[in-house]
Amino acid sequence: MFGGLEYIPNKSPHLRKSGSRPVVFDIDSSELGNSSDEEFLLSKESNEMKGGSTALSSVAIVPSPLLLWRFKALLFFIWGFCCFKIEWDSVMRMSADLRDLFLYEAFLYYNPLLLVTMMVWLWGINLWVFAQSNIGYVKIFDLDQSHLTHREIWKCATWMTIIVPTSMTAYLYLYSHGEVLLAASQPVLLYAAILTTLIFPFDIFCLSSRFFFLRTVWRILFPLQAITFADFFLADIFTSMSKVFSDLERSVCRMVHRQVATIAWLEADSVCGSHSVTIPIALVLPYIFRLFQCLRQYKDTREKTSLLNALKYSTAVPVIFLSALKYHVSPEKWTNIYRSLWLSSSVLNSLYSFYWDITRDWDLSCFTRVFKFSKSHPVSDVLHGQKWVTIWVIGSNLVLRCTWTYKLSAHLRHNHLTVFAISILEMLRRFQWIFFRVEKESNKMNNSKSNTALSMTMSDLPIEEHNLLGSDARNV
């Protein structure tokens, strides 16, 4: 045991010290007497026992994750500063009367993509909180094993954060330097690249997640089957992004009619102008799709709650189309008749939606549990069990529900910066809505599992004991 060398079997790895380089020898019977090999093995083992300096020196030096993160953050900061500097210099080269109009057109192309990027960042935060809080979102959304984690979602959002502003910077720079055709190609190439990546049929770029998203969108557009949680959940998010779809419609319309980087955006009554009838149609479509989903749920379940929910989404239709009438009726008729109707429908839609969020979507019974992480965390310590969390969520939801009407009203969208700010606030409202809506669904699934387990346990009991327990329960 302690003396001599132990022979190593044929085709077996040589036992080595942890951390040393792998050395595999196939020793046949003819090699057992080879003293040079034995001396090599002895010297090798002695060197490793002395400190293994040779092994350590051969290991590649890998930088720490913190150092890599700081280096990436520095590169991101430098990139952001360069983009801002180029955009500022490009805008300053334009004349004062053309500057605001051109910025509005550039904002029209890139505003929806920036909002989508923000929503992807927020969705990654949602998934992170669900994972920390032991919320089984994988089962809730019926995801497969290859679903994207919150880290992968953030990687996608990081690339979107880099690509979209870079394209916008190139657009402003090329136009300010007289390269109109090259400038006009920038948003076209960006939109084409995003669409191609989304529908790419090969097993790259997260194929299963892209397929799941596209399949869910198809089920939203054509609710001919039973509505799942993922179906109406994504449709609800789309209602918060109705302004995104409206701007996408106008952007694609300009690209198709070759109006990018032209003076055509000054014409409000043109094919793709601000008075086009397609704008209110694009705004109302997410609500129509959600309305059809509620009707489909009523057909399957015969629950009157689905009809009341459908009524909530129908209240958004008058808000959108009464606002659009301002561009198609006389100012006197708008002021005397349609304006009061628009205000009334706006108040009804806001209050009804707020009531439904509090009483139906959130149920007020799960407000502070979602932030209790499985492990101790500063976010959990600050938010869990605090009354101000409930007050903040209810108050902010009410205020943002009311301001959301501003974005649905086409005749109030002349100030694009104000509308953009309200769109960001609506994204944040939907972001906090997701926490409590998913947590309520998680509680519902857990309760159903508990009831199923209890019924199975009761069914396993003998009939006499089951009747005895039943009689005791009735007496109590």
What key phrases describe this protein's structure?
476 residues; mainly alpha; two-stranded antiparallel sheet; 18 helices; globular; disordered N terminus
Brief synopsis:
By secondary structure, this protein is mostly helical. It is built from 18 helices and two strands. The protein is globular.
Structural overview:
It is a single chain. The protein is mostly helical and 476 residues long. The protein contains 18 helices and two strands. It has helices at 35-50, 53-58, 65-92, 96-132, 137-140, 150-176, 180-199, 207-221, 229-240, 242-256, 278-301, 304-314, 316-324, 331-362, 378-383, 387-408, 416-460, 463-475, and strands at 12-13, 24-25. Strands 1-2 form a two-stranded antiparallel ribbon. Helix 4 (96-132) crosses helix 10 (242-256) and helix 14 (331-362) packs antiparallel against helix 16.
